[in-house]
Every structure is written in structure tokens, then in C-alpha cells.
Amino acid sequence: MPWIDHPNIKAVVWPGLPGQESGNSLADILTGKVNPSGRLPYTIAKKASDYNAKIDSSAKIVYKEKLLMGYKWFDAQNITPQFPFGHGLSYTNFTYSNLKLKAKKGHNNKAKVTASVVVKNSGSLDGAEVVQAYLSFPESAGEPPKVLRGFEKVLIKKGKKTTVKFTLGSTELSIWDIKSSSWVIPSGQFTLHIGASSRDIRQSGSFTL
């Protein structure tokens, strides 16, 4: 996108894969009848060489990227994307505060983590925010820097706030262990990141299992 840094360009309306009502929906957004709340389901790089997956015409393809796909690759290599995974703009603003975490580990590789965060519509228009939860595993787990483990879309009136809650169970807290050929919850310190995209983290908190 060589044109993206032009000073006259303030935002980009990206319709993705629109349907038959795309004309009406885009008109509603451009005229302000609807406050947009869409989010990118992938990462858009600044240049093609930033992506780790290349075109391969061979009959046998080796997936050398392993777990480092999409935003996980950009995070692991500290590459700044043009637009990060989960990104999206609104005609209002949202602030995050008061992240609370509670972790409990039981027997037989069971665990449960609950989290809550207060999100306020601090702008002048009603709008919807997509609150995203990313988890960083203990370093010994060998996982990507952070992985998406949940998201909630909430409609908040202007000036109002709401509490968004997440629950992470054994499935979300586990990794695949090659040696035992089973899902296991690694021991150590985890960090839960709450934000508006993979690169727009507003609140973070740690817990130990």
C-alpha cells in the first residue's frame, strides 16, 4: 500500500467479502448512520516480504512456519504490520480499566481462569467494541508470544461502561505435548492480555499454574 502514508488519507474502509447489501452497508458507514465495528481476521503487512509463508508450486509442501502463522509470526519476529490482526476503527473511543484475574488449578490436568475488565465508551457516539483476550504461555512451553483465546463484542452507549468477562478452561490453557502425545497445561507464569487488536493491548495481568 504505497499510498497509505499520504497525508490526505485518514482511514480506510475495507469491505472484505461483501454480500448483495454491500452498497447500502457501505453508504450507512460513510454517512455515519452506522458506527462501524468490524475487525480484521488476518494481518496486513507493510510489504510482501514480511510474510513468512511464500508461494510454493512444488507437489510436496513443508509447513516450516509451524505455529508461527499470521499475527504470531509478526509478534515472534517483532515485525510491525500495516494493520494488525483484530484491528478496526470506530467513530467513538473506548477505554479499558480494572482488569481482574482469578486462577485455580485442580487435579487431573484441570484448571480454570476467570478474568474481567471494565470497558467504557469515552466518546460521543454509541458504538460496539470487540474486546480480545490473548494468552502468553510460560516460556518453557515453546508457544508463540501470544495467542487469541477469546473475544466478546459489546454494544456500549456513549458515556457508559460495562464489565466484560472471559473464562479460560483446560482447553484454552493447554498445549500439545509431543512426548506424551496429549494435551497438557504447562507449569509456570502465564500472562493474559486484553485489548482492541493483537497490537493494541490495553490491560495485562499474570497468574501462575
Automatic annotation (TrEMBL):
Matching Pfam families: Fn3-like (PF14310), Glyco_hydro_3_C (PF01915)
Catalyzed chemical reaction(s): Hydrolysis of terminal, non-reducing beta-D-glucosyl residues with release of beta-D-glucose
Keyword Oxidoreductase listed: no
SUPFAM superfamilies: Beta-D-glucan exohydrolase, C-terminal domain
EC category: hydrolase
Major subcellular location class: secreted
Record-level Gene Ontology MF annotations: beta-glucosidase activity
Free-text function comment from the UniProt entry: Beta-glucosidases are one of a number of cellulolytic enzymes involved in the degradation of cellulosic biomass. Catalyzes the last step releasing glucose from the inhibitory cellobiose.
Family stated for the protein in its record: Belongs to the glycosyl hydrolase 3 family.
Name recorded for this polypeptide: beta-glucosidase
